[in-house]
Each structure stands twice: as C-alpha cells, then as structure tokens.
Write a structure and sequence with these properties.
This protein is of the alpha/beta class. The chain has a single domain, classed as Rossmann fold, CATH 3.40.50.150. The chain has eleven helices and ten strands. An eight-stranded mixed β-sheet has the order 3-2-1-4-5-10-6-7. Strands 8-9 form a two-stranded antiparallel sheet. α5 links the parallel β4 and β5. α9 packs antiparallel against α11. The two termini are about 30 Å apart. About 40% of the residues are buried. This is S-adenosyl-L-methionine-dependent methyltransferase. Keywords: Methyltransferase, Transferase. One of its GO terms (molecular function) is S-adenosylmethionine-dependent methyltransferase activity. Belongs to the methyltransferase superfamily.
C-alpha cells in the first residue's frame, strides 16, 4: 500500500493498463448479498475501477485510498465520493455500509485491524467482498516476470499466491459467518471453482508493449525504481520474453502475448 501513496506513482498508467473486472464478478457478489443497496465502500479504491461498477447498483458509493494521486485520477460520477485514508482506520460511523469491497489490495493489510474495522462499519446483513489475481504467467511457456517479486515484498506476494489462506486470513471463516470462496484454479477443497467462461478478472491478452506498461503499474516496480533509478527490471523482463518466447524468432512490440490470471474471490456476510 505504501508504494501507491507517493505522488510520483503513475496513476494514469495504473488506470489505463490494469486488468478490469467483469460484470459476472459483480453479479456473483449481488447474488450472495442479502443486505440493502444504499451505501457501498471500496477500500484501497485506486483509480475507481470498482466504484464505477458499484455505482450502477448502489445509491451512494465511497472509495477510500492511501494515495492522493490515485484519488485524483479516479472515476467520477454523481453518486461517488472519495477520501484519502487507510484500511485499518476507516473514518466512518458504525454500521454505515451495506457492502464493503477490496480488489487486489487486501494482501497489504493488517488483517486483524482490518477485520475489526469491517465488522464495525458494516451494517447487519452487510457483505464483505475481497478479490485478487496473481501474476500473469505466459501460457505454453515457462516464462514469468518473477524478478519483480523480490521487490514486491515476500509476505504480500505469498498471501496472494496462497489465495488468502494464511497470514491472518486463515481466521477469515471464524471472523465472519456465511463465508464463500471462489478460486481459479481451485486450490481449497471447500472452494467453488470459477467457470472458465465466467472469469471475474477480464482475461486480457496483451501486446508486448502493453504488457511492459502493465508491469510498470506494479507497486514492486515502483519500489524497485526508488532504489534503482537507472535500471529497469520491467524492460529486462520483457526483453527476455521477446528473445525467448519463440526461440530464434524474436517477438515484435505489437505481437500478442496469451496471458492467464489466477483469481480468488472471498465473500462474507455478518448475518446472524
């Protein structure tokens, strides 16, 4: 989370090159949800990818993020408001929201403090929806931009790789009642598998140049550049792919890379 708080972070690139979320994701959340549709809160909202989707369903939507620059670039609508703040200290009254969402960010949170805040500001019968996707390996090729992993932070990387099953997330079923887990590929016996044709994260293949720009939206890239201002691991990773994806036939900038995305969705209700 701290990496996104810098005003130097390229929020416009984040908005442009990050994967988007499908209508199937939102409909899955709404089918689970048994509360009202008055107010929704998106935590670590970034540039408002999620608030945009929620605004079609809820009367009022609020997005909160640690980064002022992200908020400045966030999607705007009459029923959407934003503020700067952190997940562990939500500046809202008790029982304020019908739905709380977190997309591709919960692995950075202090889980104990976050769970406490969620239970405080969530209304009776309210829903917490947490989802994420892991790094995008190339299909049919043993290539992944794993060099950036060491800059990302081992704990956050492992939490996401393990689909939120440790580092405090193993307590999720005890902290909240009526928990449902969706995974692709399925890892936990109790999880529901996300159907191939109904993925929650848009499974977008990217041109070589776009994949490079996507890597540069990672917080790990930002962290790396802070300590290595003259180097560029994203460029190095993509150059490796260009040269080795089709040995003997280097890729061009406009060639399309077939990517796959591991995905996780956690749903919980505070129904009694």
């Amino acid at each position: 989370m701290s990496n996104f708080s810098s005003t130097a972070y390229n929020s416009k690139a984040y908005s442009q090159f990050r994967p988007s979320y499908t209508e199937e994701l939102f409909q899955t959340i709404y089918r689970f949800h048994q509360g009202g549709y008055g107010k929704a809160l998106d935590v670590a909202t970034g540039t408002g990818q999620v608030t945009k989707g929620l605004a079609n369903k809820f009367d009022q939507v609020h997005g909160i993020d640690i980064s002022e620059s992200q908020i400045a670039e966030a999607y705007k609508a009459d029923n959407i408001t934003y503020s700067v703040g952190i997940a562990e200290e939500l500046p809202f009254e008790d029982a304020s929201f019908d739905l709380i969402t977190v997309a591709e960010a919960a692995h950075w949170f202090n889980t104990e403090r976050f769970f406490k805040e969620v239970k405080r500001v969530l209304k009776p019968n309210g829903t917490l929806a947490v989802w994420g996707y892991s790094c995008a390996p190339l299909k049919a090729a043993p290539i992944s931009p794993s060099k950036l992993g060491s800059s990302w932070g081992a704990s956050a990387l492992e939490i996401l790789k393990k689909f939120y099953t440790d580092s405090g997330w193993e307590k999720f079923p005890q902290e909240f009642k009526h928990v449902v887990r969706y995974e692709s590929p399925k890892q936990q016996e109790s999880a529901l598998e996300i159907p191939e044709g109904k993925m929650f994260v848009e499974m977008r293949s990217m041109e070589v140049w776009r994949f490079r720009e996507y890597l540069k939206t990672w917080s790990s890239y930002k962290r790396y550049k802070e300590t290595n201002p003259t180097g560029d691991l994203a460029d190095e990773c993509v150059e490796f792919i260009i040269q080795h994806y089709n040995p003997g036939s280097p890729l061009k900038e406009e060639d399309v890379l077939p990517l796959s995305w591991s995905q996780i969705l956690l749903l919980a209700s505070n129904r009694e």
